[in-house]
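Exercise 7. Predict the joint structure of the components listed below.
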Amino acid sequence: MLSPARNRLTIPLLLLASTAAPVFWALPEDLPPLRSLGIILGWAGCGMLFGSLLLMLRETWLSHWLGGLAAMYRWHHRAGVIAYVVLLAHPLALAADALPASPALAWQTLSPFANGWAVRLGWLSLLLLMFGLAATFASRIPYRIWRWLHAALGIGVVLGLGHLLQLGIDEPVLPLLALAVLLLGWRFIRDDAGLAARPYIVRSATPIADGVVEISLRPLAQPIAADAGQFVVVAFHSGAGFRGCGQFHPFTISSIAGDGEIRIGVKALGDCTRHLQSIATGVPARVHGAFGHFLAGRPTTAQLWLAGGIGVTPFVALLRGGPLHQPTTLIYLYRSETDAAYLHELQTLAAADRLLSLQAYATGEEPPELASLLPASHDLSNRECHVCGPPAMVAAVRKALCQRGITTRHIHFENFDFR
Ligand SMILES: Cc1cc2nc3c(=O)[nH]c(=O)nc-3n(C[C@H](O)[C@H](O)[C@H](O)COP(=O)(O)OP(=O)(O)OC[C@H]3O[C@@H](n4cnc5c(N)ncnc54)[C@H](O)[C@@H]3O)c2cc1C
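Solution:
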């Protein structure tokens, strides 16, 4: 695995390179400063968008190299927003250049009605990018609708390249267009349509708490390679009297058997996961992964694990894998006893393993009082902390741990939410 510092730098450096390369290629000479700036902004935004496209690919080798899928998606989002702002500034800088000569000329530079298809396509591309990015921030809309809105970004990129072709810039736009189609097609065929995923079948489905079902998946071909604590992206299809929603969603592996069978605990958090509560034996599924390294490479020092709700699954997977090698405290927070998945199993495991101390709390509907639940500062020193659960809980715990003097280097986390 890459060192954490190298991990953190790989994506920003990649984005820097993808932004700088077209700017360097198109660096204007002997043009007025604002016109040069306008051209540079256009190419920089274009390069940043291509970096963002690369980061949407869901490939295990790529995610391993770039520090994990969560980091890739985080930067995919950031790069998309930065590219949009830079591309929006591109026509404004060109218009500002024309303004001293004549306001009418400046308006003509901007107007989608004055300059034919080149400018029209440019604005259409910006509108679609804005539309797709607005959807990115709307985390409340169902995933199936969100996916289609987000796809507007891909069309925006292609139209943006159409804008350059209309301006008569064939080099390097035609190779860039081919690259954009390749990246978008790759994502669609291998990830969304599931070509990269392996076939599995549901062997059993057991309700383990209110609104949580544990699904066992048996491989029908070569099983995926996975470690405890990693997550997979799974789509359930129609079969055996069940109508699958067919979309790929991330779920953490809760156990891995020697024959490649995996189990996942699925909590009803939205349309698809609610429907999955009634899944039947024999339903076909496709599994892609595994991704993530949340619990990989743990040192032998004492550990503090904090789980919120279904975020307990990576810890369950590790504990099911065998006894611990370091003293570990697991603080498990859930709303009520009835929706505490795996609680009885964890209690049994803790009774059998003297290195595991389990503290389970029903916190009700309000955010938990972390000040009273977390160990005191002196109990936390030299501990490696792992936090997994909903983003708001993870953020609150990280803040509370930092306030107790734990440096971010010793806090590892997995948010059960990314798009
Ligand atoms: C790394 C990771 C591991 C996860 N492991 C588990 C697990 O072991 N068990 C479990 O029950 N849940 C897990 N989740 C959450 C699970 O993926 C979502 O509950 C599921 O995708 C909801 O889909 P939906 O269509 O039913 O709900 P929606 O109505 O679309 O959304 C409900 C909630 O789920 C989030 N969500 C929806 N789609 C996705 C997606 N593709 N990726 C991420 N979040 C999404 C939404 O932002 C929203 O907060 C994990 C998420 C991540 C990122």
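Discussion. Residues 139, 142-143, 231, 249-252, 264-267, 269-273, 310, 313, 414, 416-419 surround flavin-adenine dinucleotide (CB under 6 Å).
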